[in-house]
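Fold this sequence, please.
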Amino acid sequence: MAEKPEFIYDTHGDWQATRIEKYVFDGRGEYIGFVEGRTIYTRDGEWVGDLSKDGRILRKRAGAKKPLNPNLPAKPLLKKSDLPGRAPLPQQMAEIGYDTIDVLEEDPEIFKRLSDRRPDLD
């Protein structure tokens, strides 16, 4: 039995993804990333940002990028039917300062592309 899902929203309150256990899925149920603690990575291991208490992925605007995470988890065994069909209304979003960005608002395609930081395949 999977743990209770955690919903990920952008600053506009639009549902963008769902975290179940250590996996992150988009609205169509496709596996797009994973979580270690509260830190979100793409499925290639590229650092995206940190999951805030209000369900957004945030990071510092001028912060240095972290290296690729070499500890990629195995593909999830969850089926699309195990994922929720819709999300509840988001809680009220806290104000963020200019030094912090909402990753899904600034770069909505971040989970849709391959990382340019991963090594070339032979």
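The mean pLDDT is 89. The CA atoms of residues 10 and 56 lie 6 Å apart.
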